[in-house]
Specification:
Blueprint: E1 32-34, E2 37-44, E3 63-68, E4 81-83, E5 102-109, E6 118-124, E7 127-128, E8 130-135, E9 138-144, E10 150-153, E11 164-171, E12 180-181, E13 184-186, E14 189-190, E15 194-200, E16 208-213, E17 220-225, E18 231-234, E19 239-242, E20 247-249, E21 263-269, E22 272-278, E23 283-286, E24 289-292, E25 295-296, E26 299-303, H1 317-329, E27 334-336, H2 344-353, E28 356-360, E29 364-365, H3 387-401, E30 407-411, H4 420-432, E31 437-439, E32 452-455, H5 459-466, H6 476-483, E33 487-492, H7 503-512, E34 516-521, E35 529-532, E36 538-541, H8 569-577, E37 581-585, E38 589-594, E39 604-612, E40 615-621, E41 632-636, E42 647-655, E43 667-676, E44 692-693, E45 699-701, E46 704-706, E47 713-716, E48 719-727, H9 745-750, E49 756-765, E50 770-778, E51 784-794, E52 797-807, E53 816-824, E54 829-836, E55 849-856, E56 873-882, E57 888-902, H10 906-911, E58 923-932, E59 955-964
Parallel strand pairs: 12-29, 26-27, 26-34, 27-28, 28-30, 30-31, 32-33, 33-34
Antiparallel strand pairs: 1-15, 2-3, 2-5, 4-13, 5-11, 6-10, 6-15, 7-14, 8-9, 8-11, 16-17, 17-20, 18-19, 18-21, 21-22, 23-24, 24-25, 35-36, 37-38, 38-41, 39-40, 39-42, 42-43, 44-45, 45-46, 46-47, 47-48, 48-53, 49-50, 50-51, 51-52, 52-59, 53-58, 54-55, 54-56, 56-57, 57-58, 57-59
Amino acid sequence: MATRTTTPYYEEFDPTVGLRPPRAWFLSDAPRLSLNGQWDFRFSPRADLPEDFAGAVAGPGTWSSTPVPGHWQLHGHGHPIYTNKLLPFPVDPPRLPDENPTGDYRRTFTMPSGWPRGRVVLRFDGVDSCAKVWLNGVELGVIAGSRLPAEFDVTDVLHGEEPNLLAVRVHQWSSGTYLEDQDMWWLSGIFRDVTLLARPDGGIDDFSLTADYDHVTSEGRLRVDTEAPARLSVPELGVDALAGEEVRLPHVEPWSAEAPRLYRGTLSTPAETVPITVGFRTVHIADGVLTVNGRRVLFRGVNRHEFDPVSGRTVDEKLMRCDIELMKQHNINAVRTSHYPPHPRFLELCDEYGLWVIDECNFETHAFFPAWQAPISVNPTDDPRWERALVGRMQRMVERDKNRCSVIIWSLGNECGPGQNLGAMAGWTRERDPSRVLHYERDWTCRYVDVYSRMYASHEEVDAIGRRAEAALDDPELDARRRAMPFILCEYVHAMGNGPGGMSEYQELFERHPRCQGGFVWEWIDHGLATHADDGSRSYAYGGDFGEEVHDGNFVADGMVFPDRKPSPALAEFKKVIEPIRMVIDAERLIMRNLHDHIDTSHLRFEWTLEELGRVVASGELGSVVVAAGDTGRLPLPELPPTADESWLTVRAVLRLAAAWAPAGHEVAWVQAQTRAPAPRQCSSSVHPPTSRRPDGLLEVGAGVFDARTGDLLSLGGLPVDGPRLDLWRAPVDNDRPFSWDPLEPAWRELGLDRLQHRVDDVRVGEDELVVDIRTAAAGSDLGMRTALRWTAASSGVHLHVSVVPEGDWTVVLPRLGLRMAVPEDLERVEWYGLGPAETYSDSRLAGRVGRFSALVDALHTPYVFPQENGNREGTRTLWLRSPEGAGLRIDGGPHFSFTARRWTSEALDHARHDSELKPGDRVWLNLDRAQNGLGSGSCGPGVLPDHRLWATPDEWSLTFSLTR
């Protein structure tokens, strides 16, 4: 058998060859030619192919067309694969399997007339994962590092007037794949822009901008370094200087994420002009605290992958702006570019809108997780054969993004374990750019970095770290160094499915301990790929939906916005938790604490509304007060008109003027306080009408008709109903499921909570009441719940008092405790007085405000990519369900309850794997709950905190059912 003696270039430790030195990304007035568009494309299942397509003849095989930028898997070639940490092929670095899908690309172009003399550069902004490039049959070189730019000097091979042929061979797998094992879809191809750039003689090939700020004197120090004889002009500052000169400015306005002040200017030579933006800011660690412009910063951040449900990692500026505007509207002030440099335009927009950025190198070796601590040559992080490739990746990121003031932290990578190559990357970066600090999470000794970073540490551990009382390292010197560092959670509160809970408890720690400087939610967006069912309904695919041999299911759907970028309830909750104005209403005044890092409250105005039973009684605007960052201010409350029933005062802090990211009047923060308690209510008649037996054997209690044998409520004033019966089950949320750090679902199913059986032990008919005793349990279990339903007549319906007593040794928390019933399908118009407008749960309810809300039943459903419990509304006082004609059912709590209303059962929701599988039935199913177990963050992180766990204990509550018109 013949053996291979030559290593293919795509299996070399660093296959990159032929590239120009890395440089800053910028636009200028020099000509550029976009090569984006439809390219000829040929797909092959293997990589060891003749290079027969790079010349004038396309070569054999089937050629079609595909868009550039784009991913071939999303255009009919191969299929997407999702893994979190496992590689989709055997781990044998740097070798690869023979089955290595490969795409050949070709396109022709003609140079525009008037193209200037000088060098010409061909730039690829992103190719996944390795590519060889030819122009006019001449091999230019090889690209590796999928999310990093690559440039070739093509001056000597470019045809001036004749058509040019550009050919690119892209391999799905390469040695670089071992360095890019990130939690996302494996998608291949030329997925970012391809551009031909004129580099005119005497032009500006590269430059480095330094704009420091002295927070004591307000002095700015500005300098631009470039090899060209260029002039720097910033008219607003009166700057006109030669490149290389440091300009000291006695007073400048600093840049921050809250006040993104940019000065616009130009860097010019006679041959080229580059527009520049200047943001003055200084990053420093002082007394163990990370500061910008002399003030501690608190990251209210998210991790952001580039993603679109149709185009994958190919995203345009419209989507970038959409992301940033949504972030700013929800009080988010920071982004970690997990786990690679984003499109460079995104960072320019972060400068413009104002976001702190951790810019992360395109480096993750998660597949080596078991070997992170193993001997050298196992994990690339600690293998010197990979050093050149890794340092090169860091260089290309730093040089590309060095002029972005929003980037305040460089990250060496993600989840690669410890190793000496991190030291080489850090050493080069510190020497090249000492103005920023270094981050890396998965070496907890923090040997090479400036910030102590962790993922998913528990609340208890974060509290200890905040007190600098964390467990000690074995090395006293490293321990002392780490203990003196600022601390961030680069990932926390995993936003997978319904959740996360426990966010406010983290935020309290961040605000209590100066060392704890916030964190970054995992993550921004669900990575569901758009698909359509046979009936045309849209759904979103996740791991396993494309027949992958190895996959991680819906773990890719863990964002605060859905794939179509509609905010999930978690985003509203996060906005409330991190709101930068913390307000309290006392008897006579509004007390506000300004939690901004840098700005005062002059950009806000404060509006108030008084509501009685959810109806507006009065409203107005409070006076103004300017509160400096970190300070507390007070405003007197208005004299409120009298009310007769439950009333709430709401104060909203809103934008005084329009911002780049929101209109005037946009709500930044709010607070509610009850100004009058509910008036006493007589839920049932003072004299109960007698219970009666009808000739047909049914029972009547007030307006209710009951089955004499089972005690079930059959109708209310002629409205047919089914139930209610005790319900303990919910369709598990992702945080309940077996992969969770707190897996509750297996224990729930083992106890049979998803298959409960009811036994009616007694139906007692009294003179003025009906009492139904029921035992609820599962087959094979001696655990049970004894429920007594006591029905009495109410003035316009029936009143129900529920008492529940557990039997047996319940050692597992319950999913829910409540009642389930069904009503006719036409009762589709829902109105409620309680917490809203979005869903709320015990550990995720801060975004819920007391009010009167309405929606159709279908709109109450939250379309999580993987169907699960959703749509619960806590704190409900009164619930109305009406038909389009207006008649229907009213339910009053005694005093509060939670409800869900949906067109399918919890069992149907439990069995579905995609939203499109949920089919409406002929009834509306109601859950009327006493409580549900909390949500937690257990899919990756801490489970439900003790205060939000639902244990089986004796309990009782009341509801009143009546007809409404």
